[in-house]
Amino acid sequence: MHPSTLFAIDGLLTDEERDIRRAVRQVCDKEIRPHVAGWFETGELPARELARTLGSVGVLGMHLDGYGCAGLGAVSYGLACLELEAADSGLRSLVSVQGSLAMYAIWKYGSEEQKREWLPPMAAGERIGCFGLTEPDFGSDPGGMRTTARRDGSDWVLNGTKMWITNGSVADVAVVWARTDEGVRGFLVPAGAPGFTAHDLKRKVSLRASVTSELVLDGVRLPAEAMLPGARGLSGPLGCLNEARFGIVFGAMGAALDCLETALDYAASREVFARPLASYQLTQEKLADMALELGKGMLLALHLGRLKEAGTITPEQVSAGKLNNVREALDIARTCRTILGASGITLEYPVIRHAVNLESVLTYEGTSEIHTLVLGKALTGLPAFH
Questions:
Q1: Within this chain, do residues 12 and 83 fall inside the same structural domain, yes or no?
Q2: Are residues 375 and 279 part of one domain?
């Protein structure tokens, strides 16, 4: 029995949603799975080529309306994230940052001119975007950001540093958030702008099949029309982050599913003391427990997707989904590694790659501690952080 059959997940999806999931899986099987272990091992990713491939099948910004975007439902987008992360968290990160952070910021807060200039080529994968909020000293506390934008005549001049920026060095445009005299504002910084540089971060042992960069803004001069007119204050970037976190709720279950499928196949074929490993009670207990947590996580993701489509989802509910599903996915990956034994630490199998990737997913888009405190505040009415 396939793990999803235990909860009859397919019966909760529409024909269109199943078709989209199948189409994304086929792209992953053809274009990503044969190469991703090598990309992970070398720490390199053909991001531009992959962006064009993913754009050609409508994955980039697929949940946005107009401007070349598919305008599909939240569950369809979530299932695409699930299939992408089943291949590798780095691929889902590329798509999340492109669609739910950079493109969403322009779609939600940008001017009509900004939308027309950037969204169609970004949806096609011809242009790549990144999202500059996190700084070296300010991750969980973005309100402390030191990046500034000051007026100089009709222009803006930006100074500061952003850290841990996915797609940073390959991006054609960076959505950069900076402190101004009128609060936090967003700016579109084109690659190649004088004073703007991006440096790749090396020596990663997680998300190696992903471009991660530092952005440096040293007196970057931008015209007035580079500002996102619809965003004022931290509600702008935080609204974007909520979009990306939703994708992670589904994506983490994709990584967990790939691990569990691998462990089931391995346990069925690996013989220990002249019997299949899957025939032992301890192994079956592990498999049963993981199938239960995977199923519950999928049901939670689908429920949140329907709430999002109805327009009733809350940030606290997204935090609950992100906290639970990433935490359980990481536990599933670690347990699957034990079933594979020594084989579980090699890139011949995807399990250790998922496990170390999920260590990063547990931290980014809000650490598990922050999401725990978000829920604590919702339950008690008392904030445990500023």
A1: yes
A2: yes
Residue 222 belongs to domain with CATH number: 2.40.110.10
Domain count, the chain: 3
Which pLDDT value is given to residue 230? 95
**Which of these is catalytic: 85, 293, 328, 365?**
365
The proportion of the chain whose per-residue pLDDT surpasses 70, expressed as a percent, equals 100
Say if residue 362 is in the same domain as residue 241.
Answer: yes
At 263-318, the pLDDT tens digits run 999 999 999 999 999 999 999 999 999 999 999 999 999 999 999 999 999 999 99
- Decide: residue 238, CB within 10 A, 0-12 exposed, 13-18 middle, 19+ buried: middle
CA–CA gap between residue 189 and residue 158 (Å, rounded):
10
Question: How far apart (Å, rounded) are the C-alpha atoms in residues 168 and 319?
Answer: 26
Query: Does residue 22 sit in the same domain as residue 67?
Result: yes
pLDDT tens for 157-201 read 999 999 999 999 999 999 999 999 989 999 999 999 999 999 999
Cβ-based burial of 281 (10 A; exposed 0-12, middle 13-18, buried ≥19): exposed
Q: Is residue 353 part of a domain?
A: yes
Nearest residue to 82 (alpha-carbon basis) of 59, 116, 55, 115: 59
CATH code, domain with 38? 1.10.540.10
Range of the domain at 183: 129-226
Structural domain includes residue 386: no
Task: Give catalytic status of residue 365 as yes or no.
Answer: yes
Residue 278 to residue 268: CA distance in whole angstroms: 5
Which of helix, strand or coil describes residue 271? strand
Amino acid of residue 25: R
Q: Give me the mean pLDDT over the 20-26 stretch.
A: 97
Last-in-domain residue among 123, 151, 178: 123
CB atoms within 10 A of CB 163: 19
Q: Indicate whether 97 and 194 sit together in one domain.
A: no
pLDDT at 4 over 90: no
pLDDT at 317: 97
Calculate the alpha carbon distances from 186 to 69, 229, 232, 372 in Å.
22, 8, 8, 28
Question: What pLDDT score was predicted for residue 386?
Answer: 65
90-94, 125-129, 233-237, 288-292: segment of lowest average pLDDT: 233-237
Asked which of 226, 245, 267 is the last residue of a domain, the reply is 226
